Amino acid sequence: MGENEASLPNTSLQGKKMAYQKVHADQRAPGHSQYLDNDDLQATALDLEWDMEKELEESGFDQFQLDSAENQNLGHSETIDLNLDSVQPATSPKGRFQRLQEESDYITHYTRTAPKSNRCNFCHVLKILCTATILFIFGILIGYYVHTNCPSDAPSSGTVDPQLYQEILKTIQAEDIKKSFRNLVQLYKNEDDTEISKKIKTQWTSLGLEDVQFVNYSVLLNLPGPSPSTVTLSSSGQCFHPNGQPCSEEARKDSSQDLLYSYAAYSAKGTLKAEVIDVSYGMADDLKRIRKIKNVTNQIALLKLGKLPLLYKLSSLEKAGFGGVLLYIDPCDLPKTVNPSHDTFMVSLNPGGDPSTPGYPSVDESFRQSRSNLTSLLVQPISASLVAKLISSPKATTKNEACSPLELPNDEIRVVSMQVQTVTKLKTVTNVVGYVMGLTSPDRYIIVGSHHHTAHSYNGQEWASSTAIITAFIRALMSKVKRGWRPDRTIVFCSWGGTAFGNIGSYEWGEDFKKVLQKNVVAYISLHSPIRGNSSLYPVASPSLQQLVVEKNNFNCTRRAQCPETNISSIQIQGDADYFINHLGVPIVQFAYEDIKTLEGPSFLSEALFSTRATKIEEMDPSFNLHETITKLSGEVILQIANEPVLPFNALDIALEVQNNLKGDEPNTHQLLAMASHLRESAELFQSDEMRPANDPKERAPIRIRMLNDILQDMEKSFLVKQAPPGFYRNILYHLDEKTSRFSILIEAWEHCKPLASNETLQEALSEVLNSINSAQVYFKAGLDVFKSVFDGKN
């Protein structure tokens, strides 16, 4: 773990580069002369500094001064502590020169009794002139010193400068992203992903990112067996591969790699001969209907992907007694432009992280559990064309332009033999991590996450889009950093490994640094699979960040000829944001382009990983303008969160989201509605009494801003429930999909208790939601009380 320890910019992890500098009262600014040890000269120099400070305030320099004071209190900056002694808060007496003009008796206060002789008067005047000359020279020196230590092109911290963001983002060009994308896809053919990781590390380092490192974990991967899985019809003895092709050498030649990777990672392995029972989408009503007419014990379920999380549906099938699952995507659920009839795909049954070290990092000497499979079911993804052969029916047909879904009649019996072959091995998963250290709050992190190709997984190209976009933003950002500017907060860039197997790289890193991340992470910006279509921009954001995303999207629309209305929601998404949402309660933002027809279809189809070729991504975005738009939108959100004095989070939006989730006529919600009303009242007070004044630069005290931001960044943690159904988010602020506007765990509980007069599962779910709302309300109220006691007590 030697190299892992330096992968975060934190004092607990690094010694020299990351150590916070403490500014002692007895330290002098390096620019002070040794001759200032004389008490008289120190006094005159101090008076001069007061005068200089007044001039700086009048010229708009007071904003820099405020954040310098904040930095002095926190002891976090290495860059601006040089000015802490020379630029003090504006509470000093009036300057010497101003007092000479305003106070007629000033000389009598600060000089000896005037001598009677003219000679003495002349000497006294001469002394004053000499002193003024010396002070003037010192003023020039100190002014030069301050100027050279404050880069002229860096806007003062504590002010919002939209031009700064645009200056950084305007250097992002679609052609550069295309070039980077094409360079990356040439590397995936290597059987080991080390070449890709090395390429990313080398490129990020050359761009100027600090301390770019590999963070490696040895994890348990479930890989395809030596030969593809098969499905055999008992009635005819015909053997098929998952894509519907016969089991022959000729059929495997052209697509042997795709056939090999058409599997469910962490499925049970073996052979099962049984009747196929069509369970449609595996919803609760589907299972109840089937169990009334058939014995499902140890049978094979024919299951459609979509509508609910796959892990939840498999859990229900396992409890019902099924022995195997043939998983497919109905063509009617996809846009007409997509023809997946012969496409094979991969799914992972891993909820997240290394299965052999659940809940703790996979570091050296960690205890490893024996978990080669995460379900007792034999699970095999198959194509729609194979489903059509199993049910002896043509593939989904169109009647009067309406698609006919694939369906096996209940009165027909199909017996098949399915064989699943997988191999479990310990393999190394590599993350690439680098950062830009923040100037005033280096211990607050904005994490930006992409993912790269992992060996032994499907050779899709979404990772290349993801990596090209994050690299383009790093290039633009570092060009500004090299000229002296830095964000207020630290930006951490991560390229995750092992994403296809259950977000293993991000989970292990998160578990490894959990204590640090719980305290310091402000937000997570996801760049997972940014180009999935080309017809609609599809942003997903936490409730507290939706207003910021709307603002950025509207601003982007003003620069484009066509910009349809975009719906921003908080829903479950695929990718490495999972750990940050469900275990850290961190607000997230993700921009992606989708096919609008896909958005209208069932949710959770994205759980299937297809072998997307680079040519397909270039067909969807030939000019790479969509890539450029995603980079700039994400970049602007990153810059604003990293640089705004007050975090751009909206507390009231969380309370409103909670109330919206409780609308309807569902039973047993009166207590929840009452508690949600209290939460809204507290959030409104917090928004008006604390957030609104803090956004006024004149009332922006550094300690007040720090306290306020600490409250804002932890708002969502109250909504992490202890346990959720398989595949459901623990963070209950996120819906299952856009079609549902209720707390997901309550939807599942209400569905579960329909046939029962009372249900313990429902009561537990109601209690979880009630406790979350109450916790959030207490959190806001406690924050208000702290502000009142601290600041009212000072007045």
TrEMBL record:
Q: How the protein sits in the membrane?
A: Single-pass type II membrane protein
Answer whether the UniProt record assigns the keyword Membrane to this protein.
Answer: yes
Bilayer-spanning residue ranges: 125-146
* UniProt-listed InterPro entries: PA_dom_sf (IPR046450), Peptidase_M28 (IPR007484), Peptidase_M28B (IPR039373), TFR-like_dimer_dom_sf (IPR036757)
A cellular component term from Gene Ontology for this protein is: membrane
- Where on the tree of life does the source sit, at the highest rank? Eukaryota
What UniProt keywords apply to this chain's record, in alphabetical order? Membrane, Signal-anchor, Transmembrane, Transmembrane helix
Residue span(s) of domain Peptidase M28: 431-595
Q: Which Pfam families match?
A: Peptidase_M28
Q: Where in the cell is it found?
A: Membrane
CDD domains per record:
M28_PMSA_TfR_like (cd03874)
Signal peptide start and end residues: none
Q: Which family does it belong to?
A: Belongs to the peptidase M28 family. M28B subfamily.
What is the name of this protein? Answer: N-acetylated alpha-linked acidic dipeptidase like 2
Q: Which organism is it from?
A: Pan paniscus
Q: What is the lineage of its organism?
A: Eukaryota, Metazoa, Chordata, Craniata, Vertebrata
Q: Which gene encodes it?
A: NAALADL2
